[in-house]
Amino acid sequence: MRRFVGAVVVVVGVVLVVAGLDASDSLSSRFSRLFTGSPTDKTIWLLMGGALAVMVGVSMVWSRRGQRA
Predict the structure, then answer these.
(1) Is residue 7 very low, low, confident or very high in pLDDT (cuts 50, 70, 90)?
(2) pTM of the full predicted structure?
(3) Domain ranges within the chain, ordered by starting residue
């Protein structure tokens, strides 16, 4: 069960990263980069949240704690 939940978390993380990459190509993000030099907050949160979710999900999938031999 833990591996299944971990796999779901990985998939959600990948979706968030893809959404963040899509948001980084948006018109508002381009204007933000033009004037401030950095992308919008939404883009940053999506990319960071997605990366964190992927790391947590992978650790859940590879974890051996709680498994029977």
Answers:
(1) very high
(2) 0.82
(3) 2-62
